[in-house]
Amino acid sequence: MSLGTLDLDKVSYFDLNNELNIPKDNSIQLGKDKEALDAFIRENVVPNTLQFDSLRDRFNYLIVHDFVDQKMLQQYSFNFITRLYDYLKAQDFQFKSFMAAYKFYAQYAVKTNDSEYYVENYIDRIAMNALFYGAGKEELAMNLADEMVHQRYQPATPSFLNAGRSRRGELVSCFILQTTDDMNAIGRVINSALQLSKIGGGVGINLSNLREAGAPIKGISNAASGVVPVMKLLEDSFSYSNQMGQRNGAGVTYLSVFHPDIMSFLATKKENADEKVRVKTLSLGVTVPDKFYDLIRSNADMFLFSPYDVEREYGEPFNYIDITAEYDNMVANPKIKKYKIRARDLENEISKMQQESGYPYVINIDTVNAANPIHGKVISSNLCSEILQVQKASEIDNEQQYVTMGSDVSCNLGSTNIVNMMATTDFARSVETMMRALTFVSDNSDLDIVPSVQNGNRELHAVGLGAMGLHAFFAKNHMYYGDEEALDFTNAYFLMLNYYTLLASNKIAKERGESFYEFEKSAYADGSYFNKYLMADWSPKTAKVQKIFEQHHFPTKHDWAMLKESVQKHGLYNAYRLAIAPTGSISYVNDSTASLHPIINKIEERQEKKIGKIYYPAPYLGTDTLPYYESAYNLDMRKVIDVYATAQQHIDQGMALTLFMRSTIPAGLYEWKNGRTDKMTTRDLNILRMYAYHKGVKSIYYVRTYTDDMEEFGVNECESCSI
């Protein structure tokens, strides 16, 4: 074993990478990134990676120094581990950019306890993931290695980082809770926030069931404090439970737009808000029923309803009432206290806050539930707005025990890399391999610290396979973001992902003789889920996209009919399968564009702590692809909405859709700006949110704004839930 040393004064890779941002002869110096990558491997990685005489010596070191999960290793013969490594090495994996290698070694590679040396390289991390998620099944482990070394599949950051490690953290880091209208439930959810934040969790919490400020408690008027003090308690909880100072906990609170505290809820994000009510680190989201959009259209008054009275009248918590269906009845009911505002005043307030802070996220909750194939009701979302699963409320007694065990949500995430997936020779096998890895995460997550989350996970076996690199695929194949061919491809790709995840989940259900809880009450069991695929031709329409899919088996109506029959007979193991999470640093490691979004810059600038600026060229950037890489800030956001809405047709959960706005709107971008101010206004956001709603988009994540002095705000990258 030999150790290298690093003289920081002599490294050249940062300077070489920075030359990417310095044009030469009016051209981007793309070659400098390859030079920086080579220099990084030569100057940093090679001299600072532990070297071993043999694979056996390496694993002996890992065992002795408590780096590897020995129970995992005991599931395999060492001959197989050797074969796995031989295969991985034969694939000759190479990073394609400096940023990819830098991000992997900075954030993902296991290091010695003193952080002086790398214990593993990219191949080693893939091997650990393959062995861990293979769970002793050699063929599955080999398939997983194949998917990951060719970067078709990327587990979520906590899963990828912790797989195979003896001193590992949790495999999931994203959760959804709700509280009911009593002190015991509030106390329990604060405890849950502390516990989940301790393990690195990003937590979404719905507060809509809580009675409003000024509501009576036990006959005493004006006794209730409302949702804002609970938000402050939660913010302090996340700040306190901060992973031993590594980073603050992260949470988002959701509130219905028909809750009486909605205006004070939004006001907590105002820059000039009183410190007693201002929340600085907590994210905000709103759940929006269809009725709100109806009231906006008719410029009508809007009534907000006391959750306590609603629950007393309907016999179930406020979250579970269909406000769109019951609105007129609740307005007419004298036993329900109500408060009147103008719907458009609230609409404008939402837009003002999105301009100022990027918040709130918007969940079109009736759209979500109309498309939800699972029995029950979706009432909230997570920290990145893409997880949308049914929940059941718990009942807590005075001893903080569960009288009635409800179900909450944990998010088991992974992502396909679209460019590389389209190069696979067996789409079905690739997707099945990914579904088995994600199902392993669900089956092996021990979340007893929050029993309702544990219960929900065990009932539903829900996962969320997503995608990254859509804009890269468009550019590589000379499609403009949001044009006819781009939408045609988006439709075909996500239909394929839907079909083959259903096929895989059905196969797992057959093998285990088990389906998710209350499968028999789902739209899968009665067959209605499949009708849209049996009644229309969903195949690619444009010549370019038809050619792209020639090498893959695109599901036919007959395939859908056969799948429907098999699902009705044998069931599905996973209640939920698909969700488009944001992709953070891991998209760089994959040499990919983030999620389904358009790029921001052809050469992206990242500010790295203690290092300075690092530059990342868009994947496959070159003379031929340059015209197809239009910045998100120069695009009509309706094109982004169209892309997401097209994918949403096939995705059973949601997508983290971000809107990218300029404080000064480019001329001609939006026809409604003609003859009006070129400054971004609340009207612009109102129109775009309404457009997204009409297109069937389930959720809107951040609104990011690029200012006239070339700064971005409304940006708070979600580390906890991003892939």
TrEMBL record:
The keyword Transcription does not apply. One of its GO terms (biological process) is deoxyribonucleotide biosynthetic process. GO terms for molecular function: ATP binding; ribonucleoside-diphosphate reductase activity, thioredoxin disulfide as acceptor. Gene3D superfamilies: 1.10.1650.20, 3.20.70.20. GO terms for cellular component: ribonucleoside-diphosphate reductase complex. It catalyses: a 2'-deoxyribonucleoside 5'-diphosphate + [thioredoxin]-disulfide + H2O = a ribonucleoside 5'-diphosphate + [thioredoxin]-dithiol. The keyword Metal-binding does not apply. Keywords: Allosteric enzyme, ATP-binding, Deoxyribonucleotide synthesis, Disulfide bond, Nucleotide-binding, Oxidoreductase. InterPro entries: NrdE_NrdA_C, RNR_1b_NrdE, RNR_lg_C, RNR_lsu_N, RNR_N, RNR_R1-su_N, Rrm1. Residues 560-582 form the Ribonucleotide reductase large subunit domain. Pfam families: Ribonuc_red_lgC, Ribonuc_red_lgN, RNR_N. Transmembrane segments: none annotated. Its EC number is 1.17.4.1. Belongs to the ribonucleoside diphosphate reductase large chain family. Provides the precursors necessary for DNA synthesis. Catalyzes the biosynthesis of deoxyribonucleotides from the corresponding ribonucleotides. This is Ribonucleoside-diphosphate reductase. The gene is nrdE2.
